[in-house]
Amino acid sequence: MTTPERRQQLYSEMLRFMRANRVNTVPLDIGALCARAGVELVPLSQIVRETGLTEQEVFSIWGNRDGAVNAHGDRHRIAYHDGLPAGRVRFTICEELAHMVYGHTADAAFNIFSQAYDAEKYAQYDEEARLGAGLLVCPPKFYYTYERFLTPRSLAEICQITLPCARVRQEVFIKYRDEIERNMAYQFAPLPQSRTNLRAYEAAWRRGQKAATSRQDG
């Protein structure tokens, strides 16, 4: 379980990374971000084709069915399962990016081919990476600015993530609102621009509010 002090550090590191790499639109342009950050993306289909390994053999190396990140000197490579739903792939890549941003890949025990860390360290790295990935797929400045009409379903559509992921993002932002809003990097973070017509979502929310009021009055 991360401490409030550690979470502040995690917020700051990810928000600075986002600013440095011009993460300024929602949904996140994963390809452009990885290119700017010098991260190579390698889909599972390419790995199977070029190595002759089966998918199950690759999953055994990764330790999961979603993906993994590995450091090559000062560069990183993210392998991911391109046969999964797009929203899940998006979060997986962001989670692997978070491992990089938070320095997990600098740990000699964090090695795709020889993972030597214990269960406690694994849980710590996993929790931190999920928090960081959440900031990437849905920047907190964006969420808090438009939260009045953002339901989990609309958040999933706008950020191009799965519905369960959107529900968790909303829960995290509500739970840690005070922490995030007093973070200095958050306060100076720009408001990402949406590539989706937010007015349509706001109009739908207003219609819902009006209908609810009419039912109460009736």
Average pLDDT rating: 94
The strand order across the widest sheet is 2-4-3
**N/C terminus separation:** 48 Å
Query: What is the count of helical runs?
Result: 12
Going by helix content, strand content and strand pairing, the class is: mainly alpha
Low-pLDDT ranges: none
- Over the alpha carbons, how many angstroms does the gyration radius reach? 19 Å
Order of helices and strands: HEHEHHEEHHHHHHHEH
Portion in beta strands: 5-15%
- Shape descriptor reads globular
- Count of discrete domains: 1
Number of strands: 5
Q: What percentage of residues falls in helices of 4 or more residues? A: 55-70%
Oligomer: single chain
Q: What's the story with the biggest beta sheet?
A: 3 strands, mixed
Domain IrrE N-terminal-like: 72-133
Organism: Lawsonibacter faecis
Protein name: ImmA/IrrE family metallo-endopeptidase
What is the strand and helix layout of this fold?
Layout: H1 4-20, E1 25-26, H2 30-37, E2 39-43, H3 44-51, H4 55-62, E3 67-72, E4 75-80, H5 86-101, H6 119-137, H7 140-146, H8 152-159, H9 163-175, H10 177-181, H11 184-187, E5 193-194, H12 198-217
Parallel strand pairs: 1-5, 2-4
Antiparallel strand pairs: 3-4
